[in-house]
Amino acid sequence: MDIETPALVVDLDRLQANVDHMAGLVSARGLGLRPHAKTHKCLEIAEMQLRAGASGLTVATLSEAQVFVSAGFTDLLVAYPVYPVGAKAERLRRLLDSAHLRVGVDNEAGAAAIAAAAPGRDVQVVLEVDSGQHRTGVLPPEVVQLARMCDSLGLSVVGVFTHGGHSYKDPAATHGAAQDEGAALAEACDSLRAAGFDIAVVSAGSTPTTGAERPAQLTEERPGSYVFYDRQQLALGACTSDQLTLSVAATVVSVHGDRFVVDAGSKALAADRPDWLQGHGWVPALGADATVVTLSEHHGIVTGAAAQPAVGDVVHVVPNHVCTVVNLFDEYVVVRAGEVVDRWPVAARGRNV
Ligand SMILES: Cc1ncc(COP(=O)(O)O)c(C=O)c1O
């Protein structure tokens, strides 16, 4: 494989298998699938997801939404407490003109800014519920109050969403987080319906919790990382090693005793690392313990290899967290059976505003 390193390498067959597997899992439960596109930021992968049955996409930012809408992906949920003022308000208005866009709300100031950004429009909002991650979202007993406030501002409350991000707290947390997501959404949905709101969207989402038993109220799942999985997902038990789809190809540039150095540092592998995971990446071809133990910007130091490579060898590093890694590259090198078959732009790279 003749590629310049560091490079973002995606295995096409594994990618297709992951996309198909998740689509099958979610549809077998009678749910819709709205994958989070912040993971891949790529039009070609979004297309694969829709072809496999996804109803639309989730995004985190308005600028991600703009990239996908310009390419014809017009059914989007911005699963984030959007606060659109200034240029962001103008961008939201334009998006509402050209797409079926629903936006997240978890507070009055955000709701008021959305209403002010799009006066006279029927803006559909989805209320964020905190199911235990304690990041954003209101607690289920507070959701009716938030809905009434949105209603008074002229916004249409069409649903609720949550992200069970506490599934990442440690490898034993997944089951509880999945139950928390379901319970919080069921409670929020029931109380909103009892208060007279017409709730069409009840949306849960994280890769580790997708596929869990869900309450009858749930309508859709929003996993993102499942397209590639990563070292963190493997450690959580959310995937098997043959589902790992994305690697950073890196060249060995220096070898010293029992350690070697590759040309992928924090600017290629990103520095995300949960407390419970040692190191910044794994080199599967060099054994179970071949770990990137230290990063500088352009250096990754690897120890624990079953055999030392030579300077010039190319190794494939499975990163800890794919979403932040993808945002560091301009393109994917797409491979099949070890051969480069395509290159896809990371079209929404850096679209974080
Ligand atoms: C709001 C929201 N929904 C869905 C997801 C997708 O979760 P995962 O990366 O576990 O697939 C995320 C990820 O951070 C998120 O923040």
Q: Tags for this entry?
A:
10 helices, 353 residues, elongated, TIM Barrel, eight-stranded parallel sheet, Lyase, Ornithine Decarboxylase, Chain A, domain 1, alpha/beta, nine-stranded mixed sheet, binds pyridoxal-5'-phosphate
Describe the overall structure.
- With about 350 residues, this protein is of the alpha/beta class.
- It has two domains: about 10-225, Alpha-Beta Barrel (TIM Barrel), CATH 3.20.20; about 240-345, D-serine dehydratase-like domain (Lyase, Ornithine Decarboxylase, Chain A, domain 1), CATH 2.40.37.
- About 30% of the residues lie in helices and about 25% in strands.
- The protein is built from ten helices and 17 strands.
- The strands form two sheets. Strands 1, 10, 11, 12, 13, 14, 15, 16 and 17 form a nine-stranded mixed beta sheet that branches. An eight-stranded parallel beta sheet has the order 2-9-8-7-6-5-4-3.
- A hairpin with a 2-residue loop joins strand 10 (about 245-255) and strand 11.
- Helix 3 (about 60-70) packs parallel to helix 4.
- It is elongated, with a radius of gyration of 21 Å.
- The two termini are about 35 Å apart.
> Taking all residues together, what is the mean pLDDT?
97
H and E string: EHEHEHEHEHEHEHEEHEEHEEEEHEE
Portion of residues in helices?
A: 25-40%
Q: For this structure, what is the CATH class of the largest domain?
A: Alpha Beta
**CATH superfamily heading of the largest domain:** Alanine racemase
Q: How many helices? A: 10
Give a quick account of the main beta sheet: strands, pairing sense, barrel closure: 9 strands, mixed
Q: What would you call the quaternary organization?
A: single chain
